[in-house]
Design a protein that fits this description.
single chain, 397 residues, alpha/beta, Metallo-beta-lactamase, Chain A, Rossmann fold, seven-stranded mixed beta sheet, six-stranded mixed beta sheet, 12 helices, elongated, binds MU-OXO-diiron
């Protein structure tokens, strides 16, 4: 199936309704995804990206129904990760001599993945490829989100092919943003940004400013996952600028695991204290042992502060808390406050271990952690309420 996007530009990708995890098991995809490939049929024909390997045969059959493969003049690889290049070896079997346009890092990456020496044509920002009366302009976008990533822009139709940037893991039949459920769409957009792009926020801002300086009119953004932004495409660009700027809402997330419900009780009393001190703050609790880790990360992204709790086990914290802290550290959140809490029976190292991890992850830790011996009694619970109030007050200082 080839879906017309505008004039001679067609979508030739795959909607994957069944996908429930991506990057192995690293990213949950509750609403599926899509692998967007595009065919531009001007005087010359260009194919931009392919699909993930499990759909390669289907992709090739659909593409061959749309066009005689030998009539494809140029293959553009905006990004070599397998979800976009998985069908490339199949395509190159059919048209082995066709040129592949990608960045120098893209060549390294494709060679690393597929160990083939195809007809690579390295491109840099500002290079142009004539398709006849229209041109593709290449724009390198390293670390958005891989070193090889690039965008390309089609003159005349004013379409930016942005690959992963501005995308989201979201299967939707209509493909265009104005046909999608807006709430679901933006939930997936912010989850995608929080979990994938957060560490690269400085590059996001820089790249958007650089693109703006090119003064290229923008009618449509064709991403490589999820919707095509044809209705007010700048809305997602503006969201990215906001998300890249140390984004936070007036919320505090309490993230914990618990063995015998003592640490859970502390979490609930801390939440009570925050709400009593500042009823305007949205407070949410997440047990890390059974809450989707990517959803927790999205909540951390939106929060101005987090509290992380675990009872002590083997002189440290429960494994689900350690795992989410490791993920949080890798994402390099900025401008957020945090504190630690937890129950213990005899040695009680978890709070110190969490505290150290939070500081290492770049959080400001304005108050000492809260420890409660054994199952929290009424005094410990009152202490937890006070601790929540003190944390809420940290923004008034
Ligand atoms: Fe959608 Fe970085 O691949």
């Amino acid at each position: 199936m080839a879906l017309k996007i505008k004039n001679n530009v067609y979508w030739t990708g795959k909607i994957d309704w069944e996908l429930r995890s991506f990057h192995g098991s690293e990213y949950s995809t509750h609403r599926g995804s899509s692998y967007n490939s595009y065919l531009i049929r001007e005087e010359k024909t260009a194919l931009i990206d392919t699909v993930w390997a499990p759909f390669a045969v289907e992709f090739m059959e659909n593409l061959a129904e749309t066009i005689d493969l030998k009539k494809i003049d140029y293959i553009i690889v905006n990004h070599a990760e397998s979800d976009h290049s998985g069908a490339l070896p199949f395509l190159m079997e059919a048209v082995p001599d066709k040129p592949i346009y990608c960045t120098a890092n893209g060549i390294k990456s494709l060679k690393g993945h597929y160990h083939r020496d195809w007809n690579f044509k390295p491109v840099k920002t500002g290079d142009r490829l004539s398709l006849g009366s229209k041109e593709l302009i290449f724009i390198e976008a390293p670390m958005l989100h891989w070193p090889d990533t690039m965008f390309c822009y089609l003159t005349g139709d004013n379409i930016l092919f942005s690959n992963d940037a501005f995308g989201q893991h979201y299967a939707t039949n209509g493909l265009f943003n104005d046909l999608a459920d807006e709430n679901e769409l933006f939930e997936e957009c912010v989850k995608y940004y929080a979990n994938i792009l957060t560490p690269f926020s400085p590059m996001v801002t820089k790249k958007i400013k650089e693109y703006a300086s090119l003064n290229l009119p923008l009618d449509i953004i064709c991403t490589s996952h999820g919707v095509i932004w044809r209705d007010k495409p700048m809305q997602i660009v503006e969201k990215y600028l906001a998300w890249a700027d140390n984004y936070q809402e007036n919320r505090i997330s309490i993230i914990y695991d618990t063995m015998w419900n003592g640490t859970r009780a502390l979490a609930e009393n801390i939440a009570q204290g925050i709400s009593e001190a500042d009823p305007s703050v949205t407070v949410k609790l997440f047990n890390t042992s059974f809450t989707d880790k990517n959803d927790v990360i999205t909540e951390v992204f939106k929060s101005k502060g987090i509290l992380v709790g675990s009872p002590t086990i083997n002189r440290s914290m429960l494994s689900s808390v350690a795992a989410i802290l490791d993920q949080i550290q890798g994402l390099q959140f900025k401008n957020k406050k945090a504190a630690a809490f937890g129950c213990y029976g005899w040695s009680g190292e978890s709070v110190k271990a969490i505290d150290e991890h939070l500081k290492k992850a770049g959080f400001s830790v304005p108050i000492d952690g809260l420890k409660a011996l054994w199952n929290p009694d009424s005094q410990s619970r009152e202490e937890a309420v006070r601790f929540g109030k003190e944390f809420a007050a940290a923004w008034g200082r």
